[in-house]
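Aim 2 progress update. The chain analyzed this quarter is reproduced below.
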Amino acid sequence: MRDSPILEVREVVKRFGGVTAVNRCSLSLAPGKIYGLIGPNGSGKTTLFNCITGVEVRDAGEIRFKGGRIDGLKPHQVARRGIGRTFQIIRVFPELTALENLLVVTRGPSEAARRRAQELLRFVTLDRLQHEYAGNLSYGQQKLLEFIRVLITDPELILLDEPAAGVNRTLLNELLAAISQLRDQGKTVLIVEHDMKVVMGLCETVFVLDYGEKIAEGPPGVIQTDERVIEAYFGR
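Predicted structure tokens:
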């Protein structure tokens, strides 16, 4: 059903030795919306992404995608369910072309896969560079390439880990426009981002983590004035 959450994180806990990185965190995402996940450095944002995508195994709680549990699945199994993600550190293949970087994650370089890859390159205006080695692209162009590589399998839920970091304003505007188009196509997007202008201008609901706990949730305008959020960021 359209009104049912596409992703539910229920009381998830992740520990590393004596450190609790994610502490009884719960999130619920409705389909077809853009969400932000913010918090100070070390607040557990990327660890939560890792738990959702199977990179880390949670210690407690449940993670459900479209009603079915996905906690305990391997990353490739989570991806096949319809969840794609990017990472903080770019993971392109520098000695492959931009086009090949997309085809390498498909199940065989079929003509349909090639058409889809070229369509995505046009989507972020990288089509003129499709035969350029990824290692020769600018940092921002590599970010765009990694972003569309996630889209090659047509995921329903897209997790973006700091997509704006290090990207110049022109390329960033292209990326933000592409994210908005994904939402318009019915995709659900969850973004970890430190650039508050990006978060406040793009996201419909924002979750705030601090020391692994969710301390606030709501529209950007409400989050900006939340005393708990201000204290977490500025220590006031």
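The radius of gyration is 18 Å. Strands lie at 7-16, 19-29, 34-38, 60-65, 68-69, 83-85, 157-161, 188-192, 205-210, 213-218. These observations will guide the mutagenesis experiments scheduled for the next reporting period.
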